[in-house]
Amino acid sequence: MQERPYWLDIAPRPDDLAGASLPQRTDVVVIGGGYTGLSAAHSLARGGAAVTVIDRGPLGGGASTRNAGFVLPGFRRDTRSLLDQLGAVRTRELFHASRGAVLRLQQLATGERPELPCDYRPCGHLVLAAKPAHYEELERDAEVLAKALRHHTELVPRERLGEELGASVPYFGGRVDPLAASLNPAKLYWSLATAAQRAGAALVEDVEVQSLRRNAGRFMVRTSRGTLGGRDVVVATGGYGHPVHPSLRRRIVPVSGALIVTAPLGQNVARALIRRDRVVSDTSRNLTWFRILGDTRMVFGGGDEFRRTTTYEQIRNLTDVMCAHFPRLRGTDVDYHWTGLVAMTLDQLPHAGVRDGVHYALGCNGYGVALATYLGDRLAETIMGRADLEPFRSLRFRPVPVYFRKPFLLPLLGMYYRMRDTMR
């Protein structure tokens, strides 16, 4: 079994993508080399700015190549709770931005000569109800989406689930969002990195940012390889490497998810399991998600993101859950296993803005494939004076109570998020 993301084996780092050395001066310093940072760097460089991206690890080592490749509109929060908290106007603005992020990525990733080739495929997202009450909630949310946001989804009652899925777990219905898609996350990452470098951005890897200070209208970024000066700074660290800006540190919680990939199943078996080739997740307490890949493997993720487990426990638990869903997979080899960090926020919404002159976009809560690339571009447009960061900038970005990035507090945070879900 390979202890690394499957995507990196089928989409390895391009030979012509070389890490740069750290310059002494630049126009914009981008801290974090994931989807958000690379998208911001690409747009800024195309706009004529000198841009330096700093990543604490190797390029492609973070969540941008470790996710399952789900392209999802919306947010982790359900629509009704957003309407109750934020009102109709702000919720519409947020959802419009989310839809726009998906449509923008689709445009860039498809066509005869795509700018960001990444095996993008519209397929729809099937959400499965783990309890009868969850299906009732999906029904109510579908009605709200249609009436308040003009976004139409399709309900799948329990008796019709067999048209979608060949699973043994007793789900109570589902809902399909037709706008959702799948892609190869590593191909998207390398496409963004290559585009940013070709536009003129310097991509500097394996550099630890140690401090950040502002003096006379310029920032000085002290790193493990020296000090870099820049006019503007973007923080786009996601769940990897705590944000160096003090006021951002307690607002992001990195939680771990685990994934496995099976050996190829063959077309007949693969289509018997997921009949319409959707990306699939459920509403269970320990969120489960899965899809069939182009070579008929299944990628399966889930588990308790807030509980520390060993590698053996992760593989065993995921394999047991997968085989409970699909008994015919018992005895199938698991060829890959890896983990990744998801940047969570207290309100389970992404946030973007400016603090003390530092631009940031953080906390996509597992919905970041399209949103992260979109927010990176919006950061660039804001720095160049062509746009702003609304509606994300006006959201109240609250710190997580009693959280000081201590691992032993993660189970308590898990209980907090589950209580929120139960209350809704």
Radius of gyration: 21 Å
Question: Assembly type of the shown chains?
Answer: single chain
Number of domains: 2
Q: What would CATH call the class of the largest domain? A: Alpha Beta
> What structural class do helix, strand and pairing data support?
alpha+beta
Name of the CATH architecture of the largest domain:
3-Layer(bba) Sandwich
Shape designation: globular
Q: Percent of residues in helical segments?
A: 25-40%
Unreliable segments of 5+ consecutive residues: 419-424
CATH homology superfamily name of the largest domain: FAD/NAD(P)-binding domain
Please tally the β strands and state the result.
Answer: 19
Largest beta sheet, briefly? 8 strands, mixed
Mean of all residue-level pLDDT scores: 91
* Approximate strand percentage: 15-25%
H-E order? HEHEEHEEHEEEHEEEEHEHEEEHEEEHH
For the terminal residues, how far apart are their CA atoms?
40 Å
CATH topology descriptor of the largest domain: FAD/NAD(P)-binding domain
In DSSP terms (H or I, runs of 4 or more residues), the helix count works out at 10
